[in-house]
């Protein structure tokens, strides 16, 4: 990439040098994308290995497995969709496809995060994001107890 861009900078009117630089830039971006996907998959595998001991709830395990499967499926699709978008940035469908697959990857990672934190979408709707049901119930009890206790102590 450095050599191709240097040669293009020396002769910016050359379409051959421009094409060489563009191909080098695409190859670099493709390599970086593959590396980031690989790093994300390694992080997920490390997280799963760490949580394997702690994750006892069968529903959380199932959610984690489903999210992991979605992540594996969509990681390859994200790579392919990103390559198509890089080759055809002027086609709106390639951007929409890439954005859709990216959203699917984000949702899979969110599912892994929710399972790891023992939360579910119903917990988040009730304002208990990031903590389990038992902890939420204890927090509510503590709040109601401190409110009723303060009424009688003042």
Automatic annotation (TrEMBL):
The keyword Transcription does not apply. It is found in: Cell junction, Adherens junction; Cell membrane; Cell projection, Axon; Cytoplasm, Cytoskeleton. It is a peripheral membrane protein. Keywords: Cell adhesion, Cell junction, Cell membrane, Cell projection, Cytoplasm, Cytoskeleton, Developmental protein, Differentiation, Membrane, Nucleus. InterPro entries: Alpha-catenin/vinculin-like_sf (IPR036723), Alpha_catenin (IPR001033), Vinculin/catenin (IPR006077). The keyword Ribonucleoprotein does not apply. Its main location: other. It comes from the Eukaryota. Belongs to the vinculin/alpha-catenin family. This is Catenin alpha-2. The lineage of its organism: Eukaryota, Metazoa, Chordata, Craniata, Vertebrata.
């Amino acid at each position: 990439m450095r050599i191709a861009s240097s040669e293009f900078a020396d002769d910016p009117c050359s379409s051959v040098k421009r094409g060489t630089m563009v191909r080098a830039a695409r190859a670099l971006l493709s390599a970086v994308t593959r590396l980031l996907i690989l790093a994300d998959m390694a992080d997920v595998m490390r997280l799963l290995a760490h949580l394997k001991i702690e994750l006892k709830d069968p529903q959380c395990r199932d959610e984690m497995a489903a999210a992991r499967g979605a992540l594996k499926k969509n990681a390859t699709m994200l790579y392919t969709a990103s390559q198509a978008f890089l080759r055809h940035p002027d086609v709106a469908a390639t951007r929409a496809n890439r954005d859709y697959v990216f959203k699917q990857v984000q949702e899979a990672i969110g599912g892994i995060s929710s399972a790891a934190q023992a939360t579910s979408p119903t917990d988040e709707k009730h304002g208990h994001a990031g903590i389990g049901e038992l902890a939420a119930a204890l927090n509510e009890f503590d709040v109601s107890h401190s409110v009723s206790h303060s009424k009688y102590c003042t």
